[in-house]
Amino acid sequence: MTESSDLVxxxxxxxxxxxxGTAPQFWYAAHVCSRHEKQVARQLEERHVSCFLPxxxxxxxxxxxxxELDLVLFPGYVFVHLDLKDRLRVLQVPSVVRFxxxxxxxxxxxxxxxxxxxxxxxxxxxxxxxxxxxVGHRVRVKYGPLAGMQGILVRRKDKFRVVLSIDxxxxxxxxxxxxxxxxxx
Length: 185
What we know:
The chain has helices at residues 3-11, 37-46, 87-91, 111-122, and strands at 26-32, 50-52, 55-61, 66-72, 77-82, 96-99, 101-102, 105-106, 138-141, 150-156, 160-166, 171-177, 182-184. The chain is α+β, with helices and mostly antiparallel strands and 185 residues long. A hairpin with an 8-residue loop joins strand 9 (138-141) and strand 10 (150-156). The protein is globular, with a radius of gyration of 20 Å. It starts with a helix and ends with a strand.
């Protein structure tokens, strides 16, 4: 195993933290300095804090070579599983900026989402980052015959339904495109 796959195996551990007692534990997203995610995950493991850093493999090409790299799936974030009273152990790690919060309090993530991500990546599901798209937001078509057109995302299922409008004649058309073919504006 490579160093990064050792990191994923260790960081993907869902074992309870032995130092936290029986208090309820939840998943939280820790915001970290850019490009420090692997270092933070390593230090959290050394401090016996259960954490998860999802990685994906990517081939990068340079003029003289190709290299397969393990890159962070959610840049700037490391997921930690702990009782909220132990959050200082995370915040004291260099490069940890803060917890993702709502109304000033760290917001717990749904256990099912993180556990599904851990399970999927452990079973070899290929995942890559993709821009966050939300129904009702403007998107731009990147590829295909409609490349460059802008519209509003109205439905997400197997295909995305995008409403494209021609303002001059005040008409719209709904088209279905692949998820990979659209970006947020």
